[in-house]
Write a structure and sequence with these properties.
Number of strands: 23
Order of helices and strands: HHEHHEEEEEEEEEEHEEEEEEEEHEEEE
Number of helices: 6
Helix content: 10-25%
Strand content: 35-45%
Radius of gyration: 23 Å
Distance between the termini: 39 Å
Amino acid sequence: MTGWARAGPVWQAVSLSAGFLLAMAGNAAAQASPYVPLDDPGLPFVEHLIARGDVADPSPMVRPFRRADIQRALAQADSAGTGDTVLIARMLDRYTDVDSVPSWRIEPRIGVQAFSHARRDPLHPAGPDGVQPYGELGLEAVFGNLALVSRPVVEPRLIDDPDWPGRKDIEVAGRQSEAYISAQFRWARLLYGQLDRNWGPTGLPGIPLSNYSYGRPELGFEVGTGSLRLQALASDLRDERDSAGALVHRYFFAHRLGARLSRRLSLALWETVVFAGVDRTYQARLRNPLSLSFLENAYGLGEETNSMLGLDLEWKLGRRFTLQSQLALDDLTYKNRGAPDRNPDRWALTLAAFGPLGQRYAWRAFYTQASSLAFRTFDNQFQDFTDAGVGIGRNFADDDQLTIQVTMPVAPRWLLSPELTILRQGEGNLNASYPSGTALGSTPEIFIGTIERTYRAAVRVNGSLPHFRISADLGYHRIMNHNHIEGRTLGRFEGRLLVTAGLSKRGTIR
């Protein structure tokens, strides 16, 4: 039974009412525009221009943005005639939609993947190596205020990926990379379906929400302007079985209120909530986008939920240097801090900075940290921030990471991104049982057990030739205390390669 059916008439009525209200706003409508997927081959070039300050970020610390939003930002930069004008013009041509008429696009692609490990995360490799075929079919249609997008993918690598929640007893596996319908108006947007999201600085998985795990259907909306915007989304998580064999229903809700306080300063307050139970449904008060579940339920009604609060900040220093930070608080012990069974504080944070380097290059740097028990909860393991055992935002806690990256255009169609990374990983695990009693009091707030250290030097390549696209990530890892074994040292290469060939056709619907 789906979450829509389990939720009952209240959830259905709220959803249908939201759609009706959005439809009533259609007189002030603009043409709908599909979202730029996070694996779009042109996105690294756009992020490079944003990092340099050549192009304004249409939605700081929130991805994806729409094609129409980045098209406007690129058009403004093109009119200014500054920065990398050749690259800006090429990206503007790529992301310009068909104007004001119903349109369609179809893009079949086939290719091959090669990988040293089947997991997509190069810093936590797992699964066998291999070379596998790859195929996808991009489909989209725009009818006035409506955008419909579907992109099925055939990807045999999935069966060897430990993060894949689907079938592993077959030779050919598939997934839906994108599948959504979006109603878009001047002040509001409504979306049902699935697409990858990331809330946080570009370059690593966001703390509240990321594309680390594979997508799941959601109902979401946005209301507001470029200066003040409210976003919310609700989705089912995979059901699980408790120790008695009963089926536990699990749900996820996220909302974010962002405000651009000045040309240089933007702030956002966000919250994510997981709740679960054998007979639980998606109660109305747990999906209120203007209510803090942390306050109303944890300290008010006593509703059993796991809530995480966060704050995002972006501050522009000068015209092109930008600082970003993301702070998340999962739990803070405010009394009996000296007790032997004290619950350690749970938090996560990211500090990021970026700017231009010379005439054409850009740089990014970030430091991120997550405490040892972050994204878990002590009173109900089914309310951890995971879906099918994989993190909804981060998939690893009890760690910190420092990364420095440079992006370098090489001719108009190629982008090189060398990077250096240091990762320290403790033995904390999102799927481990939460400690209790004196074991809880003796658990450090960060770095449980032996710390594994990874030193990574890598280069990423994104580019294209006529009808061909290439993305690659090749790095050398020097690992100290490998697998948390004291004194064990390992050096190895980690790499991924995706090459596809295809065609893209678009036109108008008569």
